[in-house]
Structure formats: C-alpha cells, structure tokens
Amino acid sequence: MSSNTSVNCNNKYNSKSTKKSNVLLVEDSEFVNNAIKKELDGLGYDCMQALSLEEAMQLLKENVYEFIVLDLHLPDAYGEKLFLAVTTHSDAKVIILTSEQDVDIRNSLFKFGALDYVLKDKNFIKSIHKIDDMINSIEANKEFSILVIDDSSLVRKQIEMILKVRNYQLYLAQTAQDGLDMLENSEIDLVILDLELPDIPGLKVLQRIKNNPEHCALPVMILSGTNDPDLISSVLKGGASDFVHKPFNIEEFTLKINLWTQLSNKKNEVHCLEQLLTQYKSILNDRNMVMKIDKYGVIKEANKNFCDFFAYNKHELIGESCDVLHNDAETFSTFLNKLQSSRDKKKKINMNIKKKDGNTENINLNITLIHNNKGELFEYIIVYG
C-alpha cells in the first residue's frame, strides 16, 4: 500500500460485525437457554429458542438461521445423530454446548463441520460472551486468504471442510508449481504447505517463498508426517512459522490457524494506523496553517505555511505563549479554559490573529483537543484558515 493511498481502518481489519445474526438456541435447560438468549439479545442478536430436537426442526422449517447453538444432550436426540439431524436441514454454522466429558464426541463433530464449542462448566454463564467472539471472528475470517499446497486429495478435502465452515477464503493446490502460481496471482495471507510433494520438495518451495521479496514475510505452516527432528529443525530455521504433524488434531489445527489470523490482523491494523499517522503528519506539515499548543497554551509546533503567513521564524514561536498571536489574549485564554471543561473534542471560532509586524488578520480557527490514554487533555491542534 503506497503512502498516498486512502486508508479506512474501520473496514477490512475491524473484527466486530455491525450486522448481527439470526441465532437458534437448542438447549433443554430453560435456565441455560434463557441465560444465553438474554446475553445474545443484549448484544443485538435475533434469537429463537427450542428445548428439544422436535421444536428445533419445526423452527428450521419456518425460519433461516445463520448460527445454531446446540446442546449435545436433548430429551429426544444425542451426539452425532442430533448434530446430523440439525445440519441436514440447515446450512447454519453450529456452535456446540458440551461438557468436559464429551471430548471424543467433540472431536468427531469437528470432522462433520462443527464450528466450535462452549463448555458447560461451573463458569459457563461467564463464558457465554465467547459465542459472540466466535461469530465476530467468523465475519473477520472472510477477509483472510489461505493457500493449501498438498498432493493428497483427502487432506485437501479435510482442510477445506474445516476452514470453509469458518469462512476463510481458500486456494487449493495439488502440486508445488500450482501453489506457487496461485501465490503470484492471488492475495494470500497464510500458506499451509506439505513437505512431501511430487514435483518440488516442500523445503525448496519454502525457500522460494522466503527468497521472494514480495512473499518473504508471509507465514508458512508446514504439514508433514515426519518425526525427524533434524528435518523439523531445518524447516523452522528455513523460515516456517509453524509445524503440524499428520494426522493432525482438528481442534489444535484450527486454534493455530486462529492464532495466525489474529496475528495477521494485528499486523494489518498496525500498518493501517501507520498510514493514518502518515496522513496526520502530512496535515501538520502541509495543510493550511497548523499549530500545536500544550494544555497551558504554550506553542509546541508550527508548520511552514503558518510561519510564512504570519512572518515568523519557527524558533521565534516554539516555547512561547500562544497569546503572542492574539490581540485579545484574555478572550482566547477564556475560550481555552471553557473548552477544557466541555465535552467537545473539536471547536470552531473566528478571531483576529496578530502577525509579527503587528497587523491583524480575521481568520477561522478549527481546534481539536487531543487526550492521552487516561482521557486527560495534553495538547490542542489548531488549523488556521
């Protein structure tokens, strides 16, 4: 992204969805069901409730839901049978409610496409907010692209099933060359690379990615069935970001993907803020006439346009009271004091400003109050003109 490109930090890298989803809650405990509904209703979700599979099936016939929060233990169904009955009649993404004793069932349901789970333990009520976190992360994943390079159709299909339900953009390649071509022609955020490829060894593919200036910072997750510590060491020293053994545990795999997604989003947020900072500096340096003063009215900065217009050298202003520029100093000081006590972060005012030669100019002032992370005022930015 070039420095003169307009940046919107509230678009791609904002993890919070503005549109809330339709959610079906399927839980036979009225207390738990109502607790979840109360929390999600408060967050803006549109929730319907079912206490049994029969009730859930009727609601699924009548409505379309984007998410289903599903208890694995209902009076009329249980476990995999319950999960398949629901997903056969709905394309909604399923978040499982389960106990710690359901580890084997949880793992099998991941294979069928379960999105995630929330444990029904002693801290369950406090954990309900995790459902909102899951849904928001799913929305953010739509902007994250993953390239999978693996010659095994079985592995590719498994990864596709796991990641598609989480809304990732996927590119699937059977050979190393296909993967490298996709990398050149697509915007990729993460590469999942098999070490044992038929055309080019995975280690050489990794080297080619890391030796390319355009892709060298791209995270690469290695998949392999090897237990050779020397090979694993070579891969990590060669620039791989992570190593996953085949066959992999689905929950562990998705957690690692989530971590890389979050890290990538944080890096992109920082990049976005850097671009905004560049624009901010550009405003201070180039736009109209700009001055910064501290909360006591002492001049901290004045740009070239300001100094030229008022015929001052910069060193004549820095450290001086801003009253030197105002014919009616009392009025300006009073205005600043009022501004500090108000809730306004921006204010416009018209004043007579005194030039170095004593002449005055009637000019508009656009004043922005800047606060620190404690909410305390520490400076003003004033744009004249």
From TrEMBL:
List UniProt keywords, sorted A-Z: Chemotaxis, Flagellar rotation, Phosphoprotein, Two-component regulatory system
A Gene Ontology biological process noted in the UniProt record is: archaeal or bacterial-type flagellum-dependent cell motility
Q: Where is the Response regulatory domain?
A: 22-135, 145-261
- A Pfam family assignment: Response_reg
Cofactors, names only: Mg(2+)
Q: Which residues carry this modification: 4-aspartylphosphate?
A: D71, D194
Has keyword Translocase?
no
Quote the InterPro entries the UniProt record gives.
Answer: Bact_response_regulator, CheY-like_superfamily, PAS, PAS-like_dom_sf, Sig_transdc_resp-reg_receiver
For this entry, the protein name equals Response regulator
Species annotation: Sulfurimonas aquatica
